[in-house]
Amino acid sequence: MAAKSHALVLILCTLALPCRAEPAQGEASRSQEPALMAGPTTDLTLYALSLNGTAYRYGGSDPEGGLDCSGFVGHVFREVAGIDLPRSAQAIAQLGRKIGISELKPGDLVFFNTLRRAFSHVGIYLGNQQFIHATSSRTGEVLISSLREAYWARRFDGARRIDLAGQ
């Protein structure tokens, strides 16, 4: 358990750091990502991070029994913001405001085509091109991935922002 809390602190520190000042060769320049600030979005991302390493279970919607992608996202939004989301990634993708990848902020939802159909996977954006999600029975747990990884970059379907301000 201590190792998990040390890893969480390391992740939070990393997310609070600004992006590198100069883009990598061939990469467009973009403004720095904001550091995590107090508020509903921070609560959402911190709670999501606290579930890192939770077991994956298809159809799962609670951390004790395991979580799948939509169960993970739904659990986090319900616990932190009191928002009940639909049970599938495709249905969740119908909610909120559509945003471009350059507009992503921590707490936004990111969607992927992992089953040869649009919006078949969902995760929560953390900042610095990272997102947290309940991946699959193959990986077996909630984990953090990068939008820059070839697998996820090729399958990116879009992003949505759910309004937490009224919560």
Structural domain count: 1
Tell me about the biggest sheet?
Answer: 6 strands, antiparallel
Percent range for β-strand residues: 15-25%
Report, as a whole number of angstroms, the end-to-end distance.
31 Å
H and E order: HHEEHHEEEEEHE
How many β-strand runs?
8
Structural class, please? alpha+beta
What is the alpha-carbon Rg in Å? 15 Å
Quick one: CATH superfamily? endopeptidase domain like (from Nostoc punctiforme)
Signal peptide: 1-21
Keywords: Hydrolase, Protease, Signal, Thiol protease
Pfam families: NLPC_P60
Domain NlpC/P60: 38-163
Task: Please characterize this protein's 3D structure.
- The protein has 167 residues and is an alpha+beta fold.
- The chain has a single domain (2-16, 38-161), classed as endopeptidase domain like (from Nostoc punctiforme) (endopeptidase fold (from Nostoc punctiforme), Alpha-Beta Complex).
- The chain is built from 5 helices and 8 strands.
- The protein has a 6-stranded antiparallel β-sheet.
- It comes from Thiobacter aerophilum.
- InterPro entries: NLP_P60_dom, Papain-like_cys_pep_sf, Peptidase_C40.
